[in-house]
Amino acid sequence: MAGSRGAGRTAAPSVRPEKRRSEPELEPEPEPEPPLLCTSPLSHSTGSDSGVSDSEESVFSGLEDSGSDSSEDDDEGDEEGEDGALDDEGHSGIKKTTEEQASTPCPRTEMASARIGDEYAEDSSDEEDIRNTVGNVPLEWYDDFPHVGYDLDGRRIYKPLRTRDELDQFLDKMDDPDYWRTVQDPMTGRDLRLTDEQVALVRRLQSGQFGDVGFNPYEPAVDFFSGDVMIHPVTNRPADKRSFIPSLVEKEKVSRMVHAIKMGWIQPRRPRDPTPSFYDLWAQEDPNAVLGRHKMHVPAPKLALPGHAESYNPPPEYLLSEEERLAWEQQEPGERKLSFLPRKFPSLRAVPAYGRFIQERFERCLDLYLCPRQRKMRVNVDPEDLIPKLPRPRDLQPFPTCQALVYRGHSDLVRCLSVSPGGQWLVSGSDDGSLRLWEVATARCVRTVPVGGVVKSVAWNPSPAVCLVAAAVEDSVLLLNPALGDRLVAGSTDQLLSAFVPPEEPPLQPARWLEASEEERQVGLRLRICHGKPVTQVTWHGRGDYLAVVLATQGHTQVLIHQLSRRRSQSPFRRSHGQVQRVAFHPARPFLLVASQRSVRLYHLLRQELTKKLMPNCKWVSSLAVHPAGDNVICGSYDSKLVWFDLDLSTKPYRMLRHHKKALRAVAFHPRYPLFASGSDDGSVIVCHGMVYNDLLQNPLLVPVKVLKGHVLTRDLGVLDVIFHPTQPWVFSSGADGTVRLFT
Length: 744
Description:
It is built from 13 helices and 33 strands. The chain is α+β, with helices and mostly antiparallel strands.
């Protein structure tokens, strides 16, 4: 049998090229014909394998059990007749087969061949029938050749003739029930039919399952430790001490939770109410709306109602004349006012069918079908409603509206102003090196005090019992007694200054207090406070005994506070927070406001601590003013912003006003009226109404009421200082044009 099998292996491929050439299109036959099995070997000497069909060949094509091609055992005699010369093993196999065929009749030959087939079906040898001996070579190399490799004898294995087009493939797909399980063997180029087991294997692999049917991926896991109680423990380590001592961590957690329950931070769970709760399902629905429960329902566009022109008997004025009819016919359909010609009929029975009925119905369907389904949320807002309702300026009087007086006399720009507590006198400091005292009502210059330098700041003592003016000139602060008004007040001021007794050991101070000489006393100068650094601002405390000074220097000594009665000076800060621009005392509480370039800090003088830090969101703060009630602050900046702070509300600005076109130089509050003003380099003074209510829940009302102009721009500078009259709704302004102006 081994010999016959070897002969079958070597001889069968040699027949195939003639078979392929003889029948280019292989068609499966239902069954092999039985008489062919018992024909003599001489009948097969032509080499045509007509007895075995392609379907039978595919059974033995390597996908089943053995890789042999056709019924080898039946055709061994043919192959002997064709090839002639075979090895000894092949001869012996052929002799055996011819003896069997000669000794047995036809049915027995069928049984013997079936028995041989069964023997091959049960063959468990691992060797494969390698018909294509091309080796491990890419099959793309044979794309341009008519063959796909070589058999064991070195003959070429030709490709099957593929003359079928897509139509034939489609017909095969429709007619052949096994088309879906037919694949092409890349080694031989033949079509192979997959068995049920192979199809099941492919489907298992496609679904991510295991290839072996008998493999169970969910076998029960074997525990490392058994569930039974053993005599010996796994580990004989003694127990920890912490396993039988109460945990300190848990004790701390429990104490925290108990404290939270006592403080009310953790609420106990309330028992749920078992009664079922009902609610109105349609409570939010508008009963008048069509399909109100559909939120995005878009109603259909409505048809225009018919008018008099569509009547069968319209009034005569709706009928078109001949000229109008000709003009209507010449118009484009989209430009016509009416889509029809009005006509008159004697009765309703005489009205014919409407010609455009189907067209209008179709256009109506298009309107419904092409209706835009996007809901556009249109907010119908009156633009007037967006503007806040502010009161009219005429309802907010009194406030200054026009220029009343001009105080002329300075030869250079006037940097600073101050008014006496009674409002009768005005002092101004200029770059011409002089202080001028004016009578407010008449604009008469009462006195001129030469100080020998640029006056950067001037401040009248707010105490009505003291007649004293502080002026910042270069590196010193001059205290002058103008001797205006009540002589008793001027005399008591001199007595107060002369009553000071210097201590035996002079304390170490950041400033020196110097008495004025006799010549300087004739001019009105009483004291000189020398600092060694240029002084940029001087301001009084509300009671008149303390004054704060800003120095143009670096470090923590930028701000100094002087006490007049004891002639003491001190530096309240230990470190600096930037270049200080302005300082101001709180009118009622022991607070000091210090404005640097980017922020305003509020310090408590008694506690000696920072209370608040206001952020104006400005590039460079230029001026500062505190409301007489003390709860609101305004800041002016060089980037033309005026910022209002509500100290009770936030450290951020409550309102930011941008009314000026150029840098702000000065801001001021009125001591009695709800007014504040700002002066800018654009040469204007803007007066605003700023009502602060006693009710803390009501925000301040800020309304700009008047723009006052009069100053002439000089060297790109406009208004340098503004200040209100202490009792009247008047405002003073000093400008770079060397004048002081009063607006009433």
